[in-house]
Write a structure and sequence with these properties.
Low-confidence stretches: none
Number of strands: 7
Largest sheet: 7 strands, mixed
Helix content: 40-55%
CATH class: Alpha Beta
Distance between the termini: 22 Å
Structural class: alpha/beta
CATH superfamily: Alpha/Beta hydrolase fold, catalytic domain
Strand content: 5-15%
Number of helices: 8
Number of domains: 1
Length: 247
C-alpha cells in the first residue's frame, strides 16, 4: 500500500502478480492510496487449501485495511474479480476499470482452444517451462507482433510470476468457486473498459460486449498493447486512470 487519498485497488492478471502494476503505480500515488495484493496462489499468497471466493478475499482485505468504498482496477482475470466484487458488494465500489477481462462461458475461438490444449498438455507432462513459454507467447507477445516488438525486460519481469501461477493453477482451479452471477446491466458506477489492439481477437470482442452491456461504460483502445496493458502501455494507462479515478 502506498500514497495518500481515496483508495484504489489494483487486481492483477491470472498470469502475473501485484508487480505487474509497478510502472503504473507512480502515476496514481500522488492522489490516491494504492493497494496492490496477490490473489491466492499467486506471488506471495499461499495457494488455497479449501473452497474460496476471490471476492470474499477482497472484502476481507478491505475490511482489514478499513476501506469502506474503493475504486477498482483489474486486469484479465483480475478484471473479472473486480467486476464480480461490484456485483456482490455494489455499495463498496465507487468506480470500475476492467482491462482485457474474460467473459464467463464465452464461446472461444479455435486459436484459444488450441492454446488451452497446448498449455494443458505441457502441464500434464510436467513441463512447466513449456507451459510458461506458451503463456508468454500468447499473452505477452500476442498474435500480432514479434518478440522484437516487446519492450526489453518484460519477459524476465513476467516469467517468475507466471511460473508461480502455473505451479498453482490446478489447486486454485479446484477450490475457486468461480465468477459471481449477476446482471452486469445493473452496474451503475462509472466504468472504463480497456483493450489492447494487439490482443487476441476473442478479448477484443469481449471488451466491446462489456462496453455495450454496462450502462455507464467507456471503451478505450490501447494501440501498442497486447493482453497486459499495464505492462505494455503503463504511461498511457496511468494518464488515463488519473482523471478517471478522480471523477
Amino acid at each position: 500500500m502506498a500514497g495518500d487519498g481515496p483508495p484504489v485497488v489494483l487486481v492483477h492478471a491470472g498470469i502475473a502478480d501485484h508487480r505487474m502494476w509497478d510502472a503504473v503505480t507512480p502515476a496514481l500515488v500522488e492522489r490516491h492510496t494504492v493497494v496492490r495484493y496477490d490473489l491466492r496462489g499467486f506471488g506471495e499468497s499461499a495457494p488455497p487449501t479449501g473452497p474460496f471466493r476471490e471476492t470474499d478475499d477482497l472484502r476481507r482485505l478491505l475490511d482489514h485495511l478499513g476501506h469502506e468504498r474503493v475504486r477498482l482496477v483489474g486486469a484479465s482475470w483480475g478484471g473479472r474479480v473486480a467486476l464480480d466484487f461490484r456485483l456482490t458488494h455494489p455499495e463498496r465500489v465507487h468506480s470500475l476499470a476492467i482491462l482485457s477481462a474474460p467473459w464467463p462461458r464465452y464461446h472461444w475461438s479455435a486459436d484459444m482452444i488450441a492454446y488451452d490444449e497446448a498449455e494443458t498438455a505441457a502441464l500434464d507432462a510436467g513441463d512447466l517451462d513449456a507451459a510458461v513459454r506458451i503463456n508468454l507467447d500468447m499473452w505477452l507477445r500476442g498474435p500480432s507482433r514479434g518478440w522484437d516488438d516487446v519492450a526489453d525486460g518484460l519477459t524476465d519481469q513476467l516469467r517468475g510470476p507466471l511460473r508461480t501461477s502455473m505451479m498453482n493453477q490446478a489447486v486454485v482451479g479446484q477450490h475457486s468457486q468461480g465468477p459471481a452471477t449477476g446482471d452486469i446491466g445493473a452496474v451503475s458506477v462509472p466504468t472504463l473498459v480497456g483493450i489492447g489492439k494487439l490482443d487476441v481477437a476473442d478479448f477484443q470482442d469481449i471488451a466491446r460486449r462489456y462496453a455495450t452491456e454496462i450502462p455507464d461504460a467507456t471503451l478505450v483502445d490501447f494501440a501498442t498493447a497486447a493482453h497486459l496493458i499495464a505492462m505494455d502501455a503503463p504511461t498511457e494507462l496511468g494518464a488515463l486512470l488519473g482523471p478517471f479515478l478522480t471523477r
